[in-house]
C-alpha cells in the first residue's frame, strides 16, 4: 500500500507538469535559492529604511525632528551633516565632530564635497552600519538610505511560491515594435519613456496573449505585468520577469515560474515601475513568487 501511494504521488506530479526530481523543477528551485540570497545582499531591498526628498538649497540630515532629511532613530546623530542641492548636483558637508566614509575613504568634512552630478556615478556614503546614496527620479532628487542591521532583513524567513509547473513556461514570439519607446509610470506618479523591444505573443490554454517587453541593454528583456492573482495571492501592483533574448527567428520562452515581486513589495522606500495597461492580463497566473508578508 505504501509503495502504491508513492507511485500515485509521482504520477500526479507528472500529470501536473512537474516532478520533484526533474531537471526543470530543480532549476527553478535553484533560482529560488539565488533569489533569496540576492534579497540579503547589501544593495538589495530588505535594508532600506528611508527615502528623503531634497529641496533646493541646504538640507540638514539626522535624527533631529527638525531635520529636512529626518531619520527617526535616536541612536543616529541629531545632525550628521548637510546636503546642498543646486542645479543638477548635490554636495555634502559633515557637521562638526562627525566623520563619515565616502566611497570607502574617511571624510572629515572640512570642505564640501560633490556626491552627485549628472556626469558621474553617485557616491556611496557610510556612517556606522548605515549607508546612503543620492538618487534622481525625473525632477526629484533624494537620498536612498540603508540600515545594514534592519529588522526586516534580520527577520527575513524566505519567500513563498506557487507550485512549480512546466505549463507556465510558454513559448513566445517577439513582434518588433512600431515605435521605439513606451511610456511607463512609477509609484511616484512619474511617467518615463522606456526603450521597447516589442510585443511578446504567446498562448495559454488556447488563448492568445501579449506582453510588452522593455530593452534595458542587458542580456534579458524586462517585463512588468499584472494578472488576476494580484491583491490576493500576489502583490497588488503586479510582478516582474526577466525574459531571455529571442533567437534569430524571434522566439523565446516566458517562464512565469520565475515571476518575482518588485522592490515595493518589500519596502515603502522604493520607486518601482508599474505594469502598463497593455500588460494587465485577465487570467490568473498561478506561478512564481507570492506576495510577501503584509506589504
Please characterize this protein's 3D structure.
The protein has 295 residues and is mainly beta. It folds into two domains: 147 residues, no CATH class; 102 residues, Sandwich (Tumour Suppressor Smad4). Helices cover 12% and strands 36% of the residues. The strands form four sheets. A six-stranded antiparallel sheet has the order 1-11-10-9-6-7, with no helix packed on it. Strand 13 and strand 14 form a beta hairpin. The longest helix has 17 residues. It is elongated. The N terminus is likely disordered.
How would you summarize this macromolecular structure in one to three sentences?
This protein has 295 residues and is mainly beta. It has helices spanning 2-15, 23-39, 151-154, and strands at 48-53, 57-62, 69-70, 81-86, 89-94, 100-102, 105-107, 113-116, 125-127, 130-137, 140-147, 169-175, 181-185, 191-204, 207-214, 220-225, 239-244, 251-255.
Amino acid at each position: 500500500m505504501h509503495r502504491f501511494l508513492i507511485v500515485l504521488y509521482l504520477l500526479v506530479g507528472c500529470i501536473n507538469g512537474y516532478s520533484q526530481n526533474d531537471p526543470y523543477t530543480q532549476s527553478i528551485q535553484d533560482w529560488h535559492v539565488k533569489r533569496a540570497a540576492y534579497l540579503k545582499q547589501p544593495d538589495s531591498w530588505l535594508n532600506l529604511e528611508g527615502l528623503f526628498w531634497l529641496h533646493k538649497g541646504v538640507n540638514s540630515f539626522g535624527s533631529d525632528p527638525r531635520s529636512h532629511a529626518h531619520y527617526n532613530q535616536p541612536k543616529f546623530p541629531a545632525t550628521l551633516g548637510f546636503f546642498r542641492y543646486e542645479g543638477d548636483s548635490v554636495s555634502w558637508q559633515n557637521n562638526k565632530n562627525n566623520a563619515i566614509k565616502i566611497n570607502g575613504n574617511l571624510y572629515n568634512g572640512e570642505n564640501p564635497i560633490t556626491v552627485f552630478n549628472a556626469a558621474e556615478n553617485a557616491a556611496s556614503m557610510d556612517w556606522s552600519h548605515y549607508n546612503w546614496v543620492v538618487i534622481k527620479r525625473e525632477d526629484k532628487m533624494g537620498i536612498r538610505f540603508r540600515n545594514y542591521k534592519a529588522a526586516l532583513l534580520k527577520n527575513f524567513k524566505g519567500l513563498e511560491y506557487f507550485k512549480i509547473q512546466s505549463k507556465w513556461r510558454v513559448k513566445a514570439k517577439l513582434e518588433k515594435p512600431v515605435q521605439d519607446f513606451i511610456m511607463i509610470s512609477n509609484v511616484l506618479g512619474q511617467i518615463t519613456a522606456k526603450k521597447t523591444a516589442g510585443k511578446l505573443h504567446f498562448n495559454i490554454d488556447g488563448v492568445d496573449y501579449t506582453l510588452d517587453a522593455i530593452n534595458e541593454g542587458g542580456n534579458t528583456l524586462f517585463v512588468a505585468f499584472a494578472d488576476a492573482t494580484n491583491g490576493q495571492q500576489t502583490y497588488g501592483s503586479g510582478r516582474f520577469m526577466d525574459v531571455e533574448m529571442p533567437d534569430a527567428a524571434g522566439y523565446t520562452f516566458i517562464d512565469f515560474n520565475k515571476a518575482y515581486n518588485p522592490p515595493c513589495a518589500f519596502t515603502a522606500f522604493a520607486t518601482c515601475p508599474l505594469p502598463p495597461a497593455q500588460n494587465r492580463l485577465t487570467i490568473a497566473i498561478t506561478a512564481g513568487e507570492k506576495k510577501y508578508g503584509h506589504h
